[in-house]
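4.2 Preliminary Data

To establish feasibility before requesting continued support, the project team ran the inverse folding procedure on a target of 64 residues. The structure was first converted into the token representation described in Section 3, and no sequence information of any kind was made available to the design step. The complete token record follows.
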């Protein structure tokens, strides 16, 4: 896990936190096309971005 992942804010929809539980929580997901987004097991997700750093920044600063 990168140092960036340590700074992911809790999910605004369900309150899950990074590494809270291996079954439930947040993670940075990458597609085969090279795009990434922060996703939560509750179904919430952030914007799709070009890099892990951009995805985390978008997740942490988005409006509900």
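Position-by-position output of the design step:
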């Amino acid at each position: 896990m990168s140092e960036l992942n340590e700074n992911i804010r809790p999910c605004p929809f369900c309150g899950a936190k990074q590494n809270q539980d291996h079954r439930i929580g947040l993670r940075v997901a990458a597609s085969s096309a090279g795009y990434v987004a922060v996703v939560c097991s509750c179904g919430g997700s952030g914007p799709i971005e070009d890099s892990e750093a951009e995805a985390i920044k978008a997740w942490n600063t988005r409006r509900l």
